[in-house]
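ARCHIVE CARD
CATEGORY: sequence design from structure
SOURCE FIELD: tokenized fold
FIELD CONTENT:
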């Protein structure tokens, strides 16, 4: 299996931007935990079937897709239900990510896990790459992108792991405080480094 580089960072730190650059410039395969998390509850999936069986058909929208608001409501005030849901979905997500990583054809893969620190998932990767940015910039970018006010943006940030907690698990760090043009040189350098590690491990 290819070398797995875990990619993480806080909200609006630039994970998607960074992953896209690795893909566009160096044809590196990406496995994204958020994408996989949506796939395991898509119409026709085992995940969605189990949710509808437990909470009823009100979990489904007219087009057969998951009614996320209804599910949030069902688990919001009951930690037991949140645990039930996590126990259902987390193994499915893990298994599907591993299956996708098996299919990788690039020398190394990027495994994007936004909540890597919060869910203690760093063991899924052989190295951890953190996209690091000052909290004030995260707040600015979250407000601009998601159309939320400063208070909401600060609340989201404080519910996540801190910058320091993320940096504590990093093997490599990309700084994304500056403009997007500053990213590609950092990514190019890391790409060379990861290829070197792949060669050493052959
Ligand atoms: P999330 O996990 O919250 O979805 P993310 O970490 O994947 O976010 P992106 O979606 O890549 O982050 O970037 C967040 C926002 O910040 C986007 O609107 C993006 O265009 C912008 N952005 C990213 N990097 C920079 C940069 N260097 N300069 C200016 N804007 C940036």
């Amino acid at each position: 299996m290819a070398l797995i580089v875990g990619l993480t960072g806080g909200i609006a730190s630039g994970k998607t931007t960074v992953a896209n650059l690795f893909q566009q410039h160096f044809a590196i395969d990406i496995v994204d935990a958020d994408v996989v998390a949506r796939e395991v509850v898509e119409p026709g999936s085992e995940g969605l079937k189990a949710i509808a069986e437990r909470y009823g058909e009100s979990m489904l929208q007219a087009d057969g897709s998951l009614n996320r608001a209804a599910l949030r409501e069902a688990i919001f005030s009951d930690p037991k239900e949140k645990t039930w849901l996590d126990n259902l979905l987390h193994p499915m997500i893990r298994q599907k990510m591993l299956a996708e990583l098996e299919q990788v054809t690039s020398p190394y893969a990027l495994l994007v896990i936004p909540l890597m620190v919060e869910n203690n998932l760093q063991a899924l990767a052989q190295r951890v790459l953190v996209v690091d940015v000052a909290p004030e910039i995260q707040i600015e970018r979250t407000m601009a992108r998601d159309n939320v006010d400063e208070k909401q943006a600060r609340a989201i940030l404080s519910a996540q792991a801190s910058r320091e907690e993320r940096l504590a698990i990093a093997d490599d760090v990309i700084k994304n405080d500056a403009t997007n043009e500053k990213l590609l040189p950092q990514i190019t350098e890391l790409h060379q480094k990861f290829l070197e590690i792949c060669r050493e491990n052959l």
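CARD ANNOTATION: The longest helix spans residues 79-102. The first strand starts at residue 3 and ends at 8.
SHELF: design records, drawer C
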